[in-house]
Amino acid sequence: MTSSSLSQTSPVQGLHHVTVMASDPQRNIDFYTRVLGQRMVKVTVNFDDPGTYHLYYGDRTGQPGTIMTHFPWPGAARGVRGNGEIVATAYSAPAASYDYWLGRLTGLGLKVRGGQRFGHPMLTVDDPDGTWVELVFEDGAPVEEWPASPIPSEHALRGFHSVTGWVRDTGAVRELLVGQLGFTEMGSEDDAEGQRTRFRGSGDDDGGAGVGLFVDVVERPGQPRGSFGAGSVHHVALRTRDDEQQAAYMESLMAAGFRPTPVQDRQYFHSIYFRESNGILFEIATDAPGFPDDEPVDELGQHLKLPAWYEARRPTIEAHLPRITSPEYGVTLGTRELGTTPPVHEEDAPSSIQVLTAGRPLGEARVAAILLHGRGATAQDILSLEGDLNLSAFTYLAPQADGNSWYPQSFLAPVEQNQPYLDAALATVDALLGELEAQGIPPQNVVLGASARARAWRWNTPAAAGRGWAALWP
Hints:
The protein has 474 residues and is of the alpha/beta class. It has 11 helices and 23 strands. The protein is 19% helix and 30% strand. The strands form 4 sheets. It has an 8-stranded mixed β-sheet. Strands 6-7-8-5-9-12-11-10 form an 8-stranded mixed β-sheet, covered by helices on one side. A 5-stranded mixed β-sheet has the order 19-21-20-22-23. It is globular. The protein starts with a helix and ends with a strand.
């Protein structure tokens, strides 16, 4: 970001939230609430995969800089740490609480590693899926105390301290954080994996105090990339105040070549996403509207909250979600026992498919692209790629999935749990191929393009992989 660009925005304040893939949802809940003493401030679903929970943990109100979120996919294979991802999230703990936390964690049978980082003692422990959770003992900014926490208030965690990413090249992160987002480089030190460099966000409006100020990266040239799975951090979200500031960052990031996504409505904040060249996925999220937007503070985490566009499907979604129990309220959410097959509701069976078109008229084209949108998205969304691809010889066809979802369960679920939806979706593509061939465009002149969620068909069913389609996987 140039100095003139920076003058139009406030520097990014620091961390907003961290999102991780998990496996068993109840184990996840018990660790973050009963072991670490975080409040489960929201129970909702993955907006791109409504058969999967999205669990949020934080302080009493879920203020930015305290929020750890998880997508639990039961049965998911463990991820493997490597370059191009965030590998650890650190909480700030009171400086005098080292002995308390060491005793608590070891007393619960957890393997704990000690160490020092930039002059502060720290402990590292694995969560149930192997995610590295760190405690850095410094007197950071206080957060809103959760009265039902099992941790005495004098030892309670104080929100995030930092995240750690493993990268091939620190310079690329420096260009993003310092050059584009207004972070300050604080210094470097040796790490067991390489050279660790720390970057600091601006903090709150008072000019210094704040939670979640630091992003650390460890340079590991020549080391392998990570493999995503249970325990892997999906993305780290940085914090900005409002939509206006976020829009300014989106404009400047686009000008710098980072290709941020359009703004995504995540119900409790608005988000844009982009990757830096090492592969770490960043998000910029707004402070507002916040987690008390759709339920009172005293009831946060008590109810399954769904966005308006999923409310009509609530009975089906609740039948697919695994049964979990909230330790704070003792209430049970979801109805499915893990290991059982979710029911198929006839009213949710796939219906007729609408197909949107763009580009060269079908009768004039010799090549075609079939574009398949992802979960929660629309045919119109992915059809907008026409302008980016700028292939004037192509005709583009974008089928619209019923309910914005090609299949009801996660792509990690057994194939039979996503039937008959998968077969209907594949039949849609076959029908489009047949229509194109009838118009003089043979299959070898057709490109199949899909978002990340749609291309999960390739992994979910051998039928899709065996059809011999030419494919472009953005």
